[in-house]
Amino acid sequence: MIIFMKRRDFITKSISAGVLAGVGLPLLAQQENTKSSKHANVVNNELDKREKILYDTDIGSDIDDSICLSYLLNQKQCDLLGITTVTGEPVVRAMLASALLKVAGRDDIPIYPGVAAPLLTPQMQPKADQSKYLSKYPHETKFPEGEAIEFMRQTIRAHPNEITLLATGPFTNVALLFAVDPEIPSLLKRLVVMGGTFTYRYKDEPCLSEWNARCDPYATSMMYSAPVKNIISVGLDVTSHVVMKKDEVIEHFNTGILKTVLDFSGILDNTRQEIVFHDPLAATVIFDREICRFERGIVEIETESKRLGGLTFWKADENGNNEVAFEVDKERFFKHYFSVF
Amino acid sequence: MIIFMKRRDFITKSISAGVLAGVGLPLLAQQENTKSSKHANVVNNELDKREKILYDTDIGSDIDDSICLSYLLNQKQCDLLGITTVTGEPVVRAMLASALLKVAGRDDIPIYPGVAAPLLTPQMQPKADQSKYLSKYPHETKFPEGEAIEFMRQTIRAHPNEITLLATGPFTNVALLFAVDPEIPSLLKRLVVMGGTFTYRYKDEPCLSEWNARCDPYATSMMYSAPVKNIISVGLDVTSHVVMKKDEVIEHFNTGILKTVLDFSGILDNTRQEIVFHDPLAATVIFDREICRFERGIVEIETESKRLGGLTFWKADENGNNEVAFEVDKERFFKHYFSVF
Amino acid sequence: MIIFMKRRDFITKSISAGVLAGVGLPLLAQQENTKSSKHANVVNNELDKREKILYDTDIGSDIDDSICLSYLLNQKQCDLLGITTVTGEPVVRAMLASALLKVAGRDDIPIYPGVAAPLLTPQMQPKADQSKYLSKYPHETKFPEGEAIEFMRQTIRAHPNEITLLATGPFTNVALLFAVDPEIPSLLKRLVVMGGTFTYRYKDEPCLSEWNARCDPYATSMMYSAPVKNIISVGLDVTSHVVMKKDEVIEHFNTGILKTVLDFSGILDNTRQEIVFHDPLAATVIFDREICRFERGIVEIETESKRLGGLTFWKADENGNNEVAFEVDKERFFKHYFSVF
Amino acid sequence: MIIFMKRRDFITKSISAGVLAGVGLPLLAQQENTKSSKHANVVNNELDKREKILYDTDIGSDIDDSICLSYLLNQKQCDLLGITTVTGEPVVRAMLASALLKVAGRDDIPIYPGVAAPLLTPQMQPKADQSKYLSKYPHETKFPEGEAIEFMRQTIRAHPNEITLLATGPFTNVALLFAVDPEIPSLLKRLVVMGGTFTYRYKDEPCLSEWNARCDPYATSMMYSAPVKNIISVGLDVTSHVVMKKDEVIEHFNTGILKTVLDFSGILDNTRQEIVFHDPLAATVIFDREICRFERGIVEIETESKRLGGLTFWKADENGNNEVAFEVDKERFFKHYFSVF
Predict the structure, then answer these.
(1) Angstrom distances, CA of residue B47 to CA of A156, B287, D208
(2) C244: which residues sit within 8 A by CB, 6+ positions away?
(3) Whether B120 and A19 lie within 8 Å, measured CB to CB
(4) Which pLDDT tens digit goes with each residue over A89-113?
(5) How far, rounded to the nearest angstrom, does the alpha carbon of residue C24 sit from its chain's CA centroid?
(6) Which of D200, D208, D306 lies nearest to residue B304, judging by beta carbons?
(7) How far is the C-alpha of B234 from the C-alpha of B292, rounded, in Å?
(8) Tens digits of residue pLDDT in B137-171
(9) How many Cβ atoms are within 10 Å of B4's Cβ, its own excluded?
(10) Exposed, middle or buried, C273 (CB in 10 Å: 0-12/13-18/19+)?
(11) Out of D206, D307, D314, closest to residue B200 by CB
(12) Would you call B101 helix, strand, or coil by DSSP?
């Protein structure tokens, strides 16, 4: 019975519904009279205010994606419609996301493994290193193949101007999504990105290269040149300031899903001594814009240089469609982050 | 009743079916006991032998795409599963394809407008010039939006190792298809391409640039570097030899759909004096390999140079996955081409 | 006797001799018995300890080249063997240098106009803006044509391992010198450069581009990849910290040649409000290394990117042939600078 | 008296004079009163009509440079003012040229080793392979160092609008000459080049790359973009048609200097079976323009692509400063070539 449908089933059906009519994509329309829909209806008003979010992530490399996902799952104002994974071993990454969802009791959220390889450039992130922790946690092992872009596409078309796409991995999925269906950029509410470094710094040291942008320069360029109404970028120069030392991490990551994240993080087995909250910073600004100070302008991406591919050019412009973070209120961020758990 | 389903409905449903089960894509499976399926079954043996073809085309610019489509529609051995359009004004191109399908009484074949803009490079083919002829012919005006790549993807997954993808326009759709679902290349029976110039000639004159490859060099590179089992390329250096002068064109294009093609061609209003059969040559070699002499090797694509982007590098290699045409039996081609009408 | 030749006469004659039988070159052969030459002979032993310097400059654009030249002329430890000019209107730049030499009573120093255009890239500095001040000051108007590189070459070969080449303009002359005679780099004592930005800053603001390197990226790359024993770079990130405000400039530039420099500077006609001592900082470290803190390493140059051409890549390496300034003792610099006047 | 100086002595002295007081350069000042010089004086009027030629060559790799030099030495209408060598081991190449001059009794002609390494790209021709034949023939071993460009520069300035610069190796020397003294291009009578392939053919096979242009794409670009009044290019597509088989070579290379060339060629020790007369074809058209059919136009050079660097773009243009050979009268060429011996 549909009432027991997990969210993944629900969305998947919605996707199918979208194609049923051939041309249009009214979607969701057929399932209005189900009990699940009724339930949805009851809490409708409140839920309507939640931010509809698609989360595109390279979870499984650095730990911050897991920290970000944990936040999204616990953020009451977040309606997480689905997760797509990107870069090397996207299925393993999907498994890792699935493990976290199960820990959180939220495995209704659909997960789609996305694209492994960058466009036209060598693979820089072939492995999902955290796979070593997988065996300890129940997780899904089967996922739809090659459907991530289509899932994003249909979800966005089903909720025009309502979806926030949060991308915290290399931007291959996002670029392909925008290329495959060029109306998608303008159907997004906003795109929020952890990527770039707009003052060429990492923890105040010179740094031209931010990993996500660097891993797939062509995709990064395609993404930033798309006609999204509002692109919010939180770059490495800002995220690198939200750091937590090992002891504090152990102290704070002591409940529920955060315990699992702590386990994944490598803090406990001493493979790392601190955590930089890159991705969660990007996520939190969706819900509290005051955490960062933003400037409006234009972002362009270097693609010609082999060594500098993915470098972010920034130009202030009050009519630009980009908002870029230039400062972070570190205290406000951490307070906000842990407040949702 | 499903028995009356037009092919487009059928395929569209199939697409939906593919997502129904969430993970796998068995497709088509549910509709076995329908009358259409029974009918399909009756003629099954014979039909099974036909080549299942997806046709990706920039129909609406040069006339050869229409000449190619006309051939595919009349070629008994061809099971045309769908048409996708590419480059500027893809919907207008879809309308033009639709007009031809209606003339041929074959508007059961699904048509999906694909991607208008090349990847990261300027648009070189913004218009579908033949739109001026559209008003004279009935045609569809509404098509699915942004679904071309997904249509190709699902059709190929529904018929693993059975589909020949014929691409005679810029390769944006094909590149995105391969990028979005990286298993697709290996699920194709073959890819047949009108593109490139492997001896750097056009009608024996020096020519470094072939239009389809030139229009989207990055896409061309992504396409040729994908692990397709068999890529058959018929380049400009070969196609430019299959030319028909105005008088002969008028004489031969005198039946059924060819009359419409003649109208579209600009021959009658004197905007052109001859027709080069680029795209149809690529189509015919699917059915008669002896029309061209092929060599096996490796193809790579120039992407660094602004002026030479899309140039095709050729290296003979008996283990290569590419077969490239180096000669054409012009007489055999024309005889074969007109034999299907 | 050679002992009485002024230096410019001497060198010019030497070079000119090469084409005596040809078109001939305008010579300055007439002024042999000057006191300055006699003086040079008398104090020979002491002079031997002086740093032999060739100064390659784009004097005539920003004022700092004039401030640098004034310093070199007044620095007792400096044996200025010649001046070469570079970028647009090199002859006008030579005139400006000549005007300053005459003010300083040092027009024995040879001046050679060098190369106007950058290698393979567009001219970014076509004009010597300070030409408007020329009419007020006596100056030479005829200079050897096309001989700058050969002058540098012969001067360096004449004093192997003794010459410091100081380059504070775009590096076209230097690159050509090194290319024309590939032994020259290893015959230099050192190369001192105002160029690059190694922490990507200008006055603490993000800045990827330093003008001298940017104006001729290929030349910059050729220069930095040459086997010079010791390349000392003082980049924009450091020089931009040695700034003097208008009032202080007026106060300090009140004697001799500095008055002329003040006039050239645009301070008095209010076209500028402060002066950044880029080039003089590079010059002073030849004589007092403690003015800057240097690190040893490797410098490489971006040439592929149209937008980032000339960007300086820095990597610390204790065996590198480069020393790059990372900090400046501003007070020590200014004290040193004005101490020579 | 200057009239009795051998040409090499004259020029070398002229240049050397410039550094007399420095390290000094090895001179060839001793051989003044030779008969060849006297003879030169006697026939002055007639000689004035001869073509003044500077020959820039990578002699020592393929044999055609030697075949070309032999021609120039025997061509009565040729006044060979000097030889400069280029690419890897330029001094060895100078020795090889010297050996031929001595065989011809013409070691009055000055030889200057030029630049070994291409500009900014990897060395593709590091060795002068024919050095193995050197020990059998007397030759000079000391040459001026780093003076080739200056020698070319001064020679051209000494004979404005009279010099034909013939370049049959990679174009590093020529590019540097034009960069160092930007008036030089306009002071040449003409530049004759063996280089490029303007129809992308080698012996009727597809070929995008011609060796000389390929070895130093940046230099090639600098050369072709200089304001030379008349650039005559004889490309690989044309030169590859003037081939002589081993037996014929042995038959024809049977007198004087050609015997030595035959020895150098590798024909006798079976390392090659035929000779293509690339460089001599370029030389002969200076004296008989009817040997090739030329078209007037514009030549530009690819520099962005790693794989296609040096590719020659050709566009017909009646106002262009380039004349490019498109056909050769093979019989006329060979008849002309051997007629001078």
Answers:
(1) 39, 15, 46
(2) C252, C274, C275, C277, C334
(3) no
(4) 999 999 999 999 999 999 999 999 9
(5) 28
(6) D306
(7) 9
(8) 999 999 999 999 999 999 999 999 999 999 999 99
(9) 8
(10) exposed
(11) D206
(12) helix
| Residues facing residue C253 across a β-bridge | none
DSSP code at position D241: T
Residues of C in contact with A306 (CB under 8 A): 304
Q: CA angle at residue C37 from C36 to C42, to 5 degrees?
A: 95
- pLDDT tens digit sequence for A214-273: 999 999 999 999 999 999 999 999 999 999 999 999 999 998 999 999 999 989 988 889
Tell me the pLDDT band of D74, cut-offs 50, 70 and 90.
very high
CB neighbourhood size of B242 (10 A): 24
Q: How far apart are CA C26 and CA C113, in angstroms?
A: 14
- Write down the residue that tokens 């913004």 correspond to: B126
The helix (H) or strand (E) run that includes residue D323 is strand D322-328
The answer to whether the CB of D170 falls within 8 A of the CB of D301 is: no
Please tell me which of the candidates C206, C208, C304 has its beta carbon nearest to residue A304. C304
In degrees rounded to 5, what are phi and psi of residue C197? Answer: -145, 115
Phi-psi region at B320: left, alpha or beta (left = phi > 0; alpha = psi -120 to 50): beta
Residues of D in contact with C20 (CB under 8 A): 14
CB A68 within 8 A of CB A177: no
Side-chain half-sphere CA neighbours of B333 within 13 A: 27
H-state helical runs in chain C: 7-17, 35-42, 44-48, 64-74, 90-103, 148-158, 172-180, 184-187, 211-215, 217-224, 236-239, 246-252, 256-265, 278-287, 330-339
What is the C-alpha separation between A256 and A66, in angstroms, rounded?
A: 13
Tokens of residue C93, six digits: 């730049």
**What type of residue is A94?**
A
Question: For residues B149 and B173, is the Cβ–Cβ distance under 8 A?
Answer: yes
Strand partners, C275: C244
Torsion of CA B18, B22, B23, B26, to 10 degrees: -30
Among B217, B203, B91, CA closest to B142: B91
Q: Which H helix or E strand runs over A154?
A: helix A148-158
Chain B residues with CB under 8 Å of a chain A CB are: 8-9, 12-13, 15-17, 19-20, 22-23, 25, 115-117, 119-120, 142-147, 149-150, 153, 157, 172, 176, 179-184, 218, 221-222, 303
Which residues, at least 6 apart from B333, have a Cβ–Cβ distance to it below 8 Å?
A: B242, B277, B281, B284, B291
Q: Are strands C78-85 and C51-57 parallel, antiparallel or unpaired?
A: parallel
This model's pTM is above 0.95: no
Residue D45's identity, in one-letter code, is N
pLDDT score, position D4: 35
> And the tokens for C270?
């209010």
CA distance D168 to D56: 6
A51: which strand partners? A78
Tell me the sheet residues that pair with C276. C243
Q: Which of A282, A240, A242, A237 is nearest to A65 (CA)?
A: A282
DSSP-assigned states of every residue in D100-122: HHHHTT-TTS-EEE---S-SSS-
Return the H-helix or E-strand segment holding A201.
strand A201-202
Angle at A288 between CA A284 and CA A290, to 5 degrees: 115
Give me the DSSP letters along B220-286: HHHHHTS--S-EEEE-HHHHTT-EEEHHHHHHH--SHHHHHHHHHHTTTTTS-SEEE-HHHHHHHTT
**What does the block give as tokens for A41?**
């209806």
Residue whose C-alpha is closest to residue B21's, from A21, A145, A108, A32: A145
Beta bridge partners of A113: A85
Task: Report the candidate in A86, D290, A16, C158 with the shortest Cα–Cα distance to residue B180.
Answer: A86
